[in-house]
Amino acid sequence: MTGTAQTRPTPRYLDIGDKVWPLTRRFMGAHTFLYRRTGGRLGHTVPGVQGKMLLLDHVGAKSGVKRTSPLLYVRDGEDIVIVASKGGFPKNPAWFHNLKANPDTSVQVGSHRLDFRARVAKPEERDRLWAMAVKAYHGYEDYAVRSKGREIPLVVLEPRR
Question: Among the residues of 66-161, which ranges form H helices?
Fold first, then answer.
């Protein structure tokens, strides 16, 4: 199945990811601040990063605290697809667990705020959506290797009407 680690060894440079996670979290906080503050003029695209970014609002599954995560996304018609890669860590990101518990969410895409309902991609659509995600950001292939066999979930955000 695509999105799982099966054949390639973990590249050595990815082991560094474990050590830089605190710095990554700080960068994400600054990114979120700039994105919101500029109405999406800064942060929707990031120099040196393929794909476009959104801000995902989600509510803590246990805490009930509202949180925001900057994430790469791809469009699939009216739907938005996000990848729960966490940079290839062996565990799913917190926002994934939060969306499973509280699937009604909102995102900021550029200057637009939109309401969605989240669901995990169905097996019959996974391969197609994974290919779209990898086309938008090739790093997902390395993340799949780094994840140590975890199938990286794809989350489909469907517009709430």
Answer: 94-101, 123-136, 139-146
Q: What are phi and psi of 71, to 5 degrees?
A: -140, 150
**pLDDT tens digits for 81-117?**
999 998 888 889 999 999 999 999 999 999 999 999 9
Q: Please write the tens of the pLDDT for every residue from 23-53.
A: 666 777 788 889 999 999 988 987 777 789 9
Residue 14, burial from CB neighbour count under 10 angstroms (0-12, 13-18, 19+): middle
Looking at residue 113, the DSSP 8-state letter turns out to be E
Report the first-to-last Cα separation within the chain, whole angstroms: 33
For 55, residues 6+ apart whose C-beta sits below 8 A from its C-beta are 32, 35, 36, 43, 68, 69, 70, 71, 107, 108
pTM over 0.85: no
